[in-house]
Design brief:
Chain A: This is (Fe-S)-binding protein. Chain A: InterPro entries: Cys_rich_dom. Chain B: It comes from Aromatoleum diolicum. Chain B: InterPro entries: 4Fe4S_Fe-S-bd (IPR017896), 4Fe4S_Fe_S_CS (IPR017900), FTHF_cligase-like_sf (IPR024185), Helical_ferredxn (IPR009051), LUD_dom (IPR003741), LutB/LldF (IPR004452), LutB_C (IPR024569), NagB/RpiA_transferase-like (IPR037171). The complex is a heterodimer of chains A (261) and B (468). In chain A, α12 links the parallel β7 and β8. With 261 residues, chain A is of the alpha/beta class. Chain A has two domains: 116 residues, no CATH class; 126 residues, Rossmann fold (3-Layer(aba) Sandwich), CATH 3.40.50. With 468 residues, chain B is an alpha/beta fold. Helix content of chain B is 53%, strand content 11%. In chain B, a hairpin with a 4-residue loop joins β5 and β6. In chain B, α3 packs across α12, α9 crosses α10 and α16 runs parallel beside α19. The chains are: A alpha/beta (261), B alpha/beta (468). At the A-B interface, α1, α2, α3, α4 and α8 of A face α1, α15, α18, α19 and α20 of B. The complex binds iron/sulfur cluster. Iron/sulfur cluster (SF4) binds next to α14 of chain B. The site of iron/sulfur cluster (SF4) has 13 residues of chain B, from α14.
């Protein structure tokens, strides 16, 4: 692997908690896509979580503690990019709100906010990527994760790039913009409601006849994959980055290997 | 109405397994969402109108006292009366006093969520008066002895079959099964009541400061009959419903019909200004407006002011996947869905409705359709924050949060824990997933848990690229 440290923007990759534990392949896919687009990618070791679990549980102090850590770790990069609309929306939109009464941290939060990007939106909107040399055999349907869609305006970018993937057919599902029922801790606090919601989502996925689901947030994808697997539906689940990087050649989430159960 | 929001969990599970309810909800959801989307697409300035409506409301709320005073003066000048009610009880008593004074026996009602909020029907009935709901949906749930489950479609949880049964039992058959026949039957029963009514009570979608008028919109025309045929017309309304001019009202009317039912305009838009005047052909002899505060002025001064922009269109609940899954009754009080999850704790108390702000994925679809751009998810999160500060959050959750914070602010510890998790979960998985995990049964009861690969990304990265 050749490093080209003087060329292109210096990007700090935000390794989300779920990606770090459950799906390292998404991280390597993100690195590949960013490097192929000319970026220098670093993965700072001092990072942990963006703080969203605290923020959405109403524990703003905990969220601020985590936010300060992220700001300190990433503020010297040209960009902070992560493969999750949810975490990146927290950094982009919520950090400045969290520090709105803190004259010391507010400017730093704002400075990080404007250079924080969700991966797909960074590739398309900042780097103007329009091509993909990846190959994927199959028909995929794209699930719009809520934070990416409504928080960051991610809708056309992943579809356009996926449309460039050789061999891949995209088929829209009904209600692709409706929440899958993950919602962070929601899915374990209100499991029955969450199950009903993911069931509706899965029904719409199956109705397309697609053999693959792609999306931009691992929380949603784990929820969808887990439900698909539980009802023995032979549909594979990948993060958009894996497909675009040509690294969707192994098993999908929850282990569905191509052609097996 | 007694609040039962504490039973949200039980009631939601019950609702999910109620087949008739699910059938009714599925049908309604498709209709409302599709029609609204079409209306929004057909009006190029729709997004601009939302922004305008938001700004206009903000301006009104910033000067609410001024507009309310002007409104009161205009009502009085038109020969009407304005009554101020600090809370539900005061509002009930004011209305009861008017009804008793005119010796009311039969009271007709147009749809009014404020009257639900103040528990008006129960109070009137308790005092021996006959209360007849004239909105078809309200009439249906009155027969069923149920509260509304939606703010604009109160009987949306009922299937046609259930309505047929209710009507047959109440009207003595023969059982009708066609919608048109059911509507006709209700019309006939109600006709007679309108003419016998002593008092007609309606809500007020908008109160116009410049003219002292109240405006209601309906699709059945029942509101008109309610307010013009009775001897006394009483309008119940929240203090936040005032708008400066008729012009402003039209801005909101354009948004209301499109957002609520996906119509360009509702079938009837009725403007009432004072009682019957000398040269009027009909109309009530007395015209009263009861302006209800019930927690609203407290909202005005705090971080929940945005909520007072609400024009009660119901779009947020129509687009809410949680409401779509459990229906309105699960929420346990008058206002369901996203707007109800904000309003209920604010009006009835944070701990009376712990679950409502929490039973939300913060997916933001409600805010994206709200005609006055209320940031509902932010307000729900703010309520969680208040619960956290006031120690209403369950102890276990607080402990978990503290542990998470302790670990997550120590990267080495956090990474070590992540590595353990990745190894253990991978070790107990089979074929890439875990089917049962005792401590995570809330997840694994309904879905498999995708298994990690065994090593974390950060571990693998450092192995490949070395320490950074
Ligand atoms: S919060 Fe917005 S969408 Fe919901 S009822 Fe009120 S105005 Fe309508």
């Amino acid at each position: 692997m050749t490093e080209t440290p003087t060329r292109g923007p210096r990007v700090g990759l935000f390794a989300t908690c779920l990606m770090n534990v459950f799906r390292p392949n998404v991280g390597f896919s993100a690195v590949k896509l960013l490097e192929d687009a000319g970026c220098t990618v670093e993965v700072p070791a001092a990072q942990t979580c963006c703080g969203q679990p605290g923020y959405n549980s109403g524990d703003y102090d905990a969220a601020r503690a985590l936010a300060r850590q992220v700001i300190e770790t990433f503020e010297h990069y040209d960009y902070i990019v992560g493969p999750s609309g949810s975490c990146m929306a927290t950094i982009r939109h919520d950090y400045p709100v969290l520090f709105q009464d803190d004259p010391q941290w507010l400017p730093r939060a704002q400075a990080l906010s404007v250079k924080s990007w969700e991966l797909l939106s960074f590739l398309a909107d900042v780097l103007d990527a329009t091509q993909s040399d990846a190959h994927y055999d199959g028909t995929a349907t794209y699930h719009d994760s809520c934070s990416g869609l409504r928080g960051l305006g991610i809708k056309g970018q992943p579809r356009a790039l996926l449309g460039e993937v050789d061999g891949l057919k995209l088929k829209e599902m009904e209600d692709s913009e409706v929440c899958c029922g993950f919602g962070g801790t929601f899915c374990v606090k209100y499991p029955e409601i969450s199950e009903k919601m993911v069931d509706d989502k899965v029904r719409n996925i199956l109705a397309t006849g697609a053999d693959t689901v792609v999306g931009g947030d691992l929380g949603c994808l784990m929820n969808i994959a887990g439900r698909l697997k539980r009802i023995n539906a032979p549909v594979k689940v990948f993060h958009t980055a894996e497909v675009l990087a040509g690294l969707a050649d192994g098993p999908g989430l929850a282990g569905a290997v191509k052609g097996s159960d | 109405m007694e609040i039962r929001s504490k039973e949200f969990k039980e009631r939601s599970v019950f609702a999910i397994h109620d087949a008739s309810l699910q059938q009714a909800l599925g049908k309604a959801r498709g209709g409302f969402v599709g029609k609204r989307a079409q209306q929004a697409a057909e009006l190029p300035e729709f997004e601009q109108l939302r922004e305008e409506a938001k700004n206009t409301k903000n301006e009104i709320l910033a000067n609410l006292d001024h507009y309310l005073e002007r409104y009161e003066q205009a009502v009085v000048a038109a020969g009407g009366h304005v009554h101020w009610a600090r809370d539900a009880e005061e509002a009930r008593n004011i209305i009861l006093d008017i009804c008793k004074r005119v010796d009311a026996k039969t009271i007709t009602k147009g749809k009014s969520m404020v009257s639900e909020e103040i528990g008006l029907n129960e109070a009137l009935i308790e005092h021996g008066m006959e209360v007849v709901e004239t909105d078809l949906g309200e009439y249906i749930i009155q027969l069923a002895h149920e509260p509304p489950s939606h703010i604009i479609a109160p009987a949306v949880h009922k299937t046609k079959d259930q309505v047929s049964d209710l009507f047959e039992a109440a009207h003595g058959g023969p059982r009708k099964t066609e919608v048109a026949d059911l509507v006709n039957e209700a019309r006939q029963v109600l006709r007679d009541k309108y003419f016998r009514a002593d008092v007609g009570i309606t809500g007020g979608n908008f109160l116009v400061a410049e003219t002292g008028s109240s405006i209601i919109v309906t699709n059945e025309g029942n509101g008109d009959l309610t307010q013009t045929l009775a001897k006394v017309h009483i309008v119940t309304s929240g203090i936040e419903r005032v708008v400066p001019t008729l012009d402003d009202a039209t801005l909101f009317l354009r948004l209301l019909a499109r957002s609520a039912t996906g119509q360009e305009t509702e079938t009837y838009t009725t403007i009432s200004t004072g009682p019957r005047h000398a040269d009027d052909l009909d109309g009530p002899q007395e015209y009263h407006v009861v302006l209800v505060d019930n927690g609203r002025s407290k909202m005005l001064g705090g971080r929940f002011r945005d909520m007072l922009r609400c024009i009660r269109c119901g779009a947020c609940m129509n687009h809410c996947p949680v409401y779509g899954a459990v229906g309105g009754h699960a929420y346990g009080w008058v206002y369901p869905g996203p707007m109800g999850s904000v309003l209920t704790p604010l009006i009835k108390g944070l701990d009376a409705a712990y679950d409502l702000p929490n039973a939300c994925t913060l997916n933001g679809r409600c805010a994206s359709v709200c005609p006055v751009k209320i940031p509902l998810p932010d307000l729900l999160r703010e309520l969680r924050h208040m619960q956290h500060q006031q120690d209403i959050t369950p102890v276990m959750q607080k402990r978990a949060l503290n542990l998470w914070r302790f670990a997550a602010t120590r990267p080495k510890l956090y990474h070590a824990l992540e590595q353990v998790a990745a190894r253990v979960l991978s070790g107990i998985s089979r074929k890439g997933r875990i089917r049962r995990l005792p401590l995570a049964s809330a997840w694994t009861d309904s879905r498999d848990l995708p298994a990690p690969a065994g090593r974390t990304f950060l571990e693998l990265w450092q192995g490949k690229r070395g320490q950074k």
